[in-house]
Design a protein that fits this description.
Blueprint lengths: L12 H16 L3 H18 L1 H14 L7 H46 L3 H6 L2 H9 L6 H4 L1 H23 L1 H48 L1 H6 L3 H53 L5 H19 L1 H22 L21 E11 L2 E11 L4 E5 L6 H8 L7 E6 L2 E2 L5 H5 L2 E4 L10 H5 L8 H10 L3 H4 L19 H14 L4 E5 L7 H15 L3 E5 L11 E6 L2 E6 L1 H7 L2 H9 L13 H5 L20 H5 L5
């Protein structure tokens, strides 16, 4: 689809269609021969439909009026043949165009989903999930009326009306002029009505997205809702949204009902006037009865497409509104579409450098201010500080989820803003604070980071992250379904699966955002053993509120209010007696005025280091080297 900036709605539907034509052509162009065949079949269908009304004059005036049966068999044969042609072409049109329209909808849904998946996190932060689901599933639905049988039938109706108008003028210019004048008045009324109904249709997808979004949030947070006994409040909120949607639908029904009433009244007036004029002309011997019947039938063929304007116009308005909303999404710039991101990085060493980096989610509200630091390859950098200090934002910048507002970030000396994201992110392993699992099996969730991994590699990652300790107890073991967002697992179990997923990725840069926050002390000590293996030779960034877990980091950055206020090792920062010392001593319940020599009491609390005995568990032998297994060596 052409990526153009959405414009405001034009005052007329025709103008809006002209504006959207470049986008429509991207859909029509690959299907132009199918549509061409559809139009050909439609033309044959409509021409065959003229046989019955045209034969009525000869039947009444010739066969019945003159009692001449010689024309009866040819007339009936022609009608039967034309009816068969209509039936076959109707069937072919439905099979050809309706199915192609459904293929188009499926294709467009995939296109929109793929495009949304490539948008930056900033877009997700500003857009509700329900709105995105609505864009993917609902907004494209109306397009079938533009591409499928709706478009062809609309054009076919116009073609039939033209054929009918020619015949009507041949029969009676006066009667045709009277009917045409009333139909012009009807057209003016419909144009005015569509100007009123158009904003209603444009508002409906937005309301539907808001209601769907709130419902999605409510169902996802059902434990919070029940925990605070807020079922009734959520029901009231949802009922309010449904009421807004109902009001919109009722407004639409009212408008379409008025349009239908207007159409019925005007068309009834046409019928009455034609009956009056026709009767007088027949009695004056200016028109035969057969000609009058023929005129009436052809008039119905002229009026029928006009009578369908209400239905077709409504569908067209809905389709245009959906296309406009879809175009708005596709006009959003994907995060990897920046022409400045052209550098393909090979296997990174993992040297990360921040130079005077500032960042703000919203203009004028900075989250980070002039942050500068360097992490050498294979080292561990720990970020500590109070909640809201900017630690997760720094991690997001390392993962290239966001682009700095000011300053630059370098990876192995290359400006990260110039690097193709695919080549960089394939070398990341991320364990976020908000553990997310898909509704699949334990094995599928672990293998998500590396689908081509062997069974042995998956099981090795599970052993390192201690997933095997609970998975082996399930009846289906690693084929156990974890439920939506991992609801069937405990918080600690979900986090272990998430850690195993990162381990299997075998990343060059590892990001651990509160990776062990949901674990008890014993489980944490066991997982720290596996993580110690994993962090060897990798640049690792760790966010941890449990400061005892970051004491072996080569570099600890203390973050407050978006700035680095202290940096150094555990020993140097502890000896400094500054902000880190305050955080550490307060967390461990030690009086601030008591001097504790680093390395004494703390050693007693440290989990066993990754050394002799660190890879033993429950009396079993040593685990095989996980890095060797994960990289497929000796597998």
């Amino acid at each position: 689809m052409a990526e153009v900036i959405p414009k405001q709605a034009s005052p007329s539907q025709a103008a809006r269609l002209r504006e959207l034509w470049p986008d429509l052509w991207t859909f029509i162009q690959p299907r132009r021969w199918i549509l061409a065949l559809g139009f050909l079949l439609m033309a044959i269908n409509r021409l065959a439909g003229l046989v019955l009304p045209a034969s009525s004059k000869y039947l009444i005036d010739g066969v019945i009026g003159k009692h001449d049966a010689r024309m009866l068999v040819p007339l009936i044969s022609a009608v039967i043949g034309a009816t068969l042609v209509q039936g076959v072409t109707d069937f072919a049109l439905t099979q050809l165009l309706s199915k192609e329209a459904q293929r188009l909808i499926a294709e467009l849904r995939m296109k929109v989903q793929q495009h949304i998946g490539r948008l930056s996190l900033s877009y997700y932060d500003a857009t509700k999930t329900g709105a995105l689901v609505s864009r993917i599933m609902s907004d494209v639905e109306g397009l079938r009326n533009l591409i499928g049988t709706g478009l062809v039938q609309f054009v076919g109706g116009i073609l039939t009306a033209i054929f009918a108008l020619v015949v009507l003028l041949k029969i009676s210019v006066l009667m045709t002029g009277v009917a045409a004048a009333i139909l012009v008045v009807f057209g003016i009324c419909m144009r005015y009505a569509f100007k009123i109904i158009r904003p209603i249709f444009r508002a409906r997808p937005k309301i539907n997205a808001e209601v769907t979004g709130r419902l999605t949030e409510s169902l996802a947070g059902v434990r919070v809702v029940k925990g605070y006994h807020a079922e009734q409040r959520e029901a009231v909120v949802f009922a309010g949204g449904v009421k807004r949607l109902l009001d919109n639908v009722l407004q639409t029904l009212t408008a379409t009902s008025v349009m239908s009433l207007t159409a019925s009244t005007l068309l009834g007036l046409v019928s009455a006037l034609i009956m009056f004029l026709g009767a007088h002309r027949i009695m004056a011997h200016d028109m035969t009865l057969g000609s009058f019947v023929e005129f009436t039938i052809f008039l119905a063929m002229l009026i029928a497409p006009v009578g369908q304007v209400v239905n077709i116009g409504t569908q067209l308005t809905e389709a245009i509104a959906g296309l406009e909303r879809t175009r708005e999404v596709l006009a959003e710039q994907p995060e990897d579409a920046d022409p400045g991101r052209a550098v393909e990085v090979g296997v990174v060493r993992g040297e990360i450098a921040f130079e005077d980096v500032s960042f703000a989610y919203e203009p004028g509200k900075p989250v980070l201010n002039d942050v500068s630091f360097r992490s050498s390859p294979g080292t561990v950098t720990a970020l500590v500080g109070p909640s809201g200090a900017g630690k997760s934002t720094m991690i997001g910048l390392v993962a290239a989820f966001y682009v700095p507002t000011q300053g630059r970030i370098f990876v192995d000396g290359i400006d990260l803003s110039t690097v193709r994201l695919e080549s960089y992110r394939t070398q990341l392993g991320v364990v976020l604070q908000d553990t997310f699992l898909f509704d699949g099996t334990i094995r599928e969730n672990v293998a998500f980071s590396r689908p081509e991994a062997s069974e042995e590699q998956i099981l090795a990652a599970c052993r390192i992250a201690r997933v095997d300790e609970f998975a082996e107890r399930f009846e289906l073991k690693y084929d156990t379904v974890v439920g939506e967002r991992g609801v069937k697992l405990s918080g600690g179990q979900k986090q272990r699966v998430s850690i195993a997923r990162a381990i299997l990725a075998d990343p060059r840069i590892l990001i651990l955002d509160e990776a062990t926050s949901s674990l008890d002390s014993e489980s944490e000590a066991l997982i720290q053993e596996g993580l110690a293996y994993l962090m060897q030779g990798r640049t690792t960034f760790v966010i941890a509120h449990r400061l005892s877990t970051v004491r072996r980091a080569e570099q600890i950055l203390v973050i407050e209010s978006g700035r680095i206020v202290e940096r150094g090792t555990h020993e140097s920062l502890y000896a400094l007696g500054g902000r880190y010392w305050e955080l550490y001593t307060r967390q461990h319940g030690i009086e601030q005025n008591r001097l504790i020599v680093p390395g004494e009491k703390e050693k007693e609390e440290e989990p066993e280091a990754a050394g002799a005995g660190a890879n033993r568990r429950n009396g079993e032998g040593a685990l095989p080297n996980p890095v060797t297994l994960l990289r497929g060596q000796g597998a």
